[in-house]
Write a structure and sequence with these properties.
The complex is a heterodimer of chains A (about 775) and B (about 170).
Chain A (H helix, E strand, L loop, with lengths): L13 H5 L15 E7 L5 E7 L1 H5 L3 E6 H4 L29 E2 L5 E7 L2 H10 L1 E6 L6 H4 L15 E8 L2 H9 L3 E12 L8 E7 L4 E6 L4 H12 L6 E4 L15 H13 L3 E4 L2 H7 L3 E12 L5 E13 L12 H4 L10 E10 L13 H18 L4 H8 L8 E2 L5 E2 L4 H12 L1 H13 L3 E10 L7 H6 L8 E7 L5 E5 L8 H14 L5 E5 L16 H27 L7 E4 L2 E4 L2 E7 H10 L12 E6 L8 E10 L6 E11 L6 H21 L30 E4 L17 H18 L13 H10 L6
Parallel strand pairs in A: 1-12, 10-11, 14-15, 20-21, 27-28
Antiparallel strand pairs in A: 1-5, 2-4, 2-6, 3-5, 7-15, 8-13, 9-10, 9-12, 13-14, 16-17, 18-26, 19-20, 19-25, 22-23, 23-24, 26-27
Helix pairs in contact in A: 7-8, 11-12, 11-20, 13-14, 16-17, 17-18, 19-20
Chain B lengths: L1 E8 L2 E8 L4 H8 L18 E4 L2 E4 L12 E3 L19 H8 L9 H13 L3 E2 L1 H7 L11 H13 L3 E2 L8
Parallel strand pairs in B: 1-5, 6-7
Antiparallel strand pairs in B: 1-2, 3-4, 3-5
The chains are: A alpha+beta (about 775), B alpha/beta (about 170).
Chain lengths: ~775, ~170
Amino acid sequence: MPTLFGTPVRRKEDPRLITGHGNYTDDIRLPDLLYAAILRSPYAHARIRSIDVGKARALPGVVAVFTGADIAGKVAPIPTGWIVPEADQKLPPHPALAQEKVRYVGDGVAMVVAESRAVAEDALEQIEADYEPLTPVVDAEQAIAPSAPLVHEDVPNNVVLHWQAGSDVATAQQAFASAEVAVHRRFKNQRLVPNAMEPRASVAQYNPGSGELTLWTTSQNPHIVRLLLSGVIGVPEQKLRVVAPDVGGGFGSKIPFYPEEALVSFAAMQLGRPVKWTETRSENFLATTHGRDQIQDVVLYGTKDGKIVGVEANILANMGAYLSTAAPGVPTILFGLILPGAYAIPHVRIDVKGVLTNTTPIEAYRGAGRPEATFIIERLVDEYAHEIDMDPVEVRRKNFIPADAFPYNTSTGLTYDSGNYELTLRKALDAVDYTQLRQRQEKLRKQGHLIGIGTCSYVEICGLGPSKVAGAVGFQGGLWESAIVRVHPSGKVNVYVGVSPHGQGEETTFAQIVADTVGVPIEDVSIVHGDTAAIPMGWGTYGSRTTPVGGSALALAAQKVADKAKRLAAHLLEASPDDVVMQDGLFQVKGVPQAQATFQQVALAAYTAWDLPEGEEPGLEASSFYDPPNFVYPFGTHLCVVEIDRETGNVHILRYVAVDDCGRVINPMIVEGQVHGGIVQGIGQALWEGAVYDDQGQLLSGSMMDYALPKASFFPRFEVYRTETPAPFNPLGVKGIGETGTIASTPTVVNAVLDALRPLGIEDLEMPLTPQRIWQALQQHGGDRS
Amino acid sequence: MGVTVHTRVNGQPIEREIEARQLLVYFLRDELGLTGTHVGCDTSQCGACTVWLDGRAVKSCTVLAAQVDEHEVTTVEGLAETVPEAQRIEGLHPVQAGFWEKHGLQCGFCTPGMMMTAAELLANSERLSQQEIREALEGNICRCTGYQDIVDAVAFAAEKMGVSVERDVTASI
């Protein structure tokens, strides 16, 4: 049987999804189902004077109305799951429904439960909530001003955490002070709205007789939800079942444990009937977590001949009104430690203040910290290159960690596993014939065209991660993964995994691994994920960890099964296991062609157990818990060519080249799909997307009419290439690929746009680089005329 | 206030007493159990709810169920049956087959609407450029795929349906 590892196998998840037979949370229908709707605060900051739910309760079809007072003492506050050490991190309480005060537009105030979705929404309009508006604070910089209103009274100056990292302070300061060149910049890495296409939804069903509660929910990590839900609603963990069925994208916004998950569970227990809540897209904009939102004061220090000496970053990270589940780790650990990027930078200093504001809570969003860090270093490298009059590509090349230096210890304390950064750069440059491209650019510029070329060479940290490190950096959980490979008596195989894919295709890639290892056709392997009643404990899908960590667990379990099957086959064939080979689903004894047993015969023999080898247990299954010894560090170079329309300020992407290295590739088709999607999301940030609040904390970009999501016609065909440097620390040799596109493409495109505009004297522009923003800059710099 | 709707959905005659304000998408999902059609937004931007009304792609979140009285609705569950059996691939509409073959979906949430739009495009085209395919998908948002494999999926289906598609060219810069 040819190996499936490395082949573009069509996805096993697709037949149900392309025929309308997926099963997303909102598709779940149960007898006697009730529907919940949430009344949300129209104010960013206000004291609740009173809530009158009388009229709402009286509406026919309304079953119950709950306010903050009704749940107090019964539903515990929503906890955060990351406590960053040595950061003086505060833990402001986050009630599932507001108590006394509301802290952002969208904060839950009351929940209606009714016989239908429509009646529940009607009833919301009948609730009379009276507020005393308070002055809100929206911007992180204003929030730390001494006179700023406090989002939480017990968090002084709204600083919820203050984290510092990097190399030795005194040495670094000395190096910074004596550097020949210092490039100062202030970047705003704007707030984004993840906009997974499937809005969040939760359905809870309670059995009062057994005390068991099942929650179906749109989650990337059902076991984390179960653990936190148990503490919040007081149902013991063994009586809680959390199911993430088909999940329609997450991008980090479905990591958190959310108030609504606790609220529908509570309502189902109170009312003895199942309760469903599905958010509208408008609610998703307000009450599902956002991403990014940093003000970055940064400096790159270097020599005149292009050697980077150090990087310094002072960051204000807007955290929103409450600390979401994984949020504290994003602008700290996942951001700061990767700041040096692909370069050997001896001195790095990072200072991060996490700031509370009256806005929607921030959480991981595709890349989570790494895009914000990569943007800094990759933008600074371009500015530095311009400053010393060197080609940005040359500066990159001069400062890369060389291929023979791995494993490489960074000045921020990481150990990069493997890499060949120069190779990806070379491949990207070759793809466009860079030298000639620069010449053509020069010629076109003379003809009046605003042509820009941008590059970015990134490295990222993912495959989260060793549990020991997780503990050391304050993640309140482990980061290992588990898998059970279970062969049934008929020889068919189920695999149960703790990770929770939601679009990444692991029902296929995992089946490829198992089919190869166990020696069965891929059609005979089905992956089970997302249901805590079926799967072993696992920490979920985020941080590009599903394949490097979950896949490794699975590969090890599959190997145990393969080994046992071989021992059983040898026993059946009266041969030594060393003489038995498995080929095309058939066990054979070397040199004895007639001695054969099918995999199915071996599986059946394992279960009938009529004749097992001495000391062998019946059955044919194995489990594995895999804790990786290190993170994985994918890397690559992206390159983009743009032309800017002088009359409209519109950016046309003429070419986009991606060269990525994610180690060994299981399914190239799926890897390329991840790259495409990541690129588009990252370009979304560069050019169009941005959450905009007014000074009263109203989200102005609160719908898909106001928030510009990328569409098909905005892009040319991407030119996608790979290099393959195996990951040395996991059994599959794989790294993550889910976030690289988002990490690389934002600075690539911004660098390209600024390269186009630089001849006009335009040195920097804030993202998103909308036509309006560029057009205004062109007007100011006389660039509207060619 | 209730109204009676007589309609055909995926070829099946349907008669239902419904609330006059009910949207077509909830009629399909909640009354008929056709949950392949999804709700992704509330402003008719995302296109996840796209179905055919008398063969034309419409956003079912912006159509009242009452409006389909005496009209015909097709959803993703009935998509394969809109082409003759000889044109189906493994029992699928060529667009469905294309999405599978070319990795035109990841999470799958936007996919039914995306396919309904694409299938309408192909049913009414003889020749398409890749850019025309991209522009035809203007009303359908996908957050996972970056669209490239969707374009390839549609081009794959086009070929199977006798619609010619011009190849993409890299910009001459």
